[in-house]
Amino acid sequence: MKLSKGDQIKVIHKEDSFSEDYQNGDIFTVEDTWYGGVQVKTALGLPLALSESEYEPYRETPQASLPEGEFAGKIAVVTGGVHGIGKTICEEFRKAGAVVCILDKEENGYFTGDLAEESVLRAFSEKVIRDYGRVDFLINNAMLTRGGLPDCSYEDFNYVLRVGVAAPYMLTRLFQEHFGENGSVVNISSSRDRMSQPGTESYTAAKGGIHALTHAMAVSLAGRVRVNSISPGWIDTDFKEYHGPDAFQQPAGRVGNPLDIANMVLFLCSPKAGFINGENICIDGGMTRQMIYHGDFGWTLDGSGT
After folding, report:
1. DSSP strand E in the chain: where?
2. Is there a contact between 101 and 125 (Cβ–Cβ < 8 Å)?
3. Is the separation of the CB atoms in 183 and 158 below 8 Å?
4. pLDDT of 46 higher than 90
5. Mean pLDDT across the chain, nearest whole number?
């Protein structure tokens, strides 16, 4: 593992038997690195050079403080975890005992950065591995829209694809050798991966991309990590309850909320979903299964339809 200034190491094989400055089991903070080793400071403040055969990376894992739960001690990475569906996913993972590492463009307690930048993805993945040594669950949730044909530029269109497709691909690639046993990737797609409204090309293309990326990665990571995706329908991220037509137009009789998605995320990460791989699960209250025609079963199109 590549070490940086500020990382901690533990001496495991003292080579200088005459030195009293350090012993096996001592913990040091890295002051500088060089080819084949690191430099630290002794308790007396004196510089000490150690070869890489003398130490191993050290991470203090406060196991005793972890809450009990289905995912106690597991490491969950969630992109876009500050608001909306991502925030609820993080909350549910924490309730189940997992340690949550967030990557978001907005300020958060772990890592802030733009997912469209490769350097951010690399720095984030290095921090996670440096801090915890592995990843158990990767939830690719972050997304945005820049409109479509009426107003979306070439640059904006590609920016959305970088956040919505390239970032999930790259994070999976960066973490692929670091997943723990029974690792799981869950990609958040959308019911717009199969149906659309006007002017949504940037969002729809990205969601269709991550849908297809899911089964490709599931095959590439077969036997090591399961990869699935979820396609939410209408999800009110403020948990607003709807009544009247907004509710009963849905075959399920209501509009969805973030828990509907978070519950499925945690299920797909659990051993209960061990035989589900490369799958897309649409959670939309049944809307995409409902045939709608003007004048049929009470449905009416107002206006000219243009």
Report:
1. 8-11, 27-29, 32-34, 37-41, 47-51, 55-57, 75-79, 99-104, 111-112, 135-140, 179-188, 225-232, 280-283
2. no
3. no
4. no
5. 90
Please enumerate in sequence order all residues whose Cβ is within 8 A of that of 111, keeping only pairs 6 or more positions apart, or say none: 101, 102, 103, 104, 123, 124, 127
* pLDDT surpassing 90 at residue 143: yes
Name the DSSP letter for residue 50.
Answer: E
**Alpha helices, DSSP H, located in 133-200:** 154-161, 167-175
Residue 63 has pLDDT above 50, yes or no: no
CA torsion sign for 79, 81, 84, 86 is positive
**Which among 110, 203, 242, 293 is annotated as catalytic?**
203
What's the CA gap between 39 and 49, in Å, rounded?
A: 4
Sequence length of the chain is 306
Enumerate the H helices of 61-200 as residue ranges.
84-95, 118-132, 154-161, 167-175
Q: Which residues contact 131 (CB under 8 A, 6 or more apart)?
A: 59, 101
Q: What is the pTM of this model?
A: 0.76
H-run or E-run covering 259: helix 258-269
| DSSP-derived 3-state class of residue 246 | helix
Helix (H, G, I), strand (E, B) or coil at 108: coil
Rounded to 5 degrees, what angle do the CA atoms 56, 177, 38 make? 25
**Catalytic-residue membership of 169:** no
* Orientation of helix 258-269 relative to helix 84-95, angle to 10°: 50
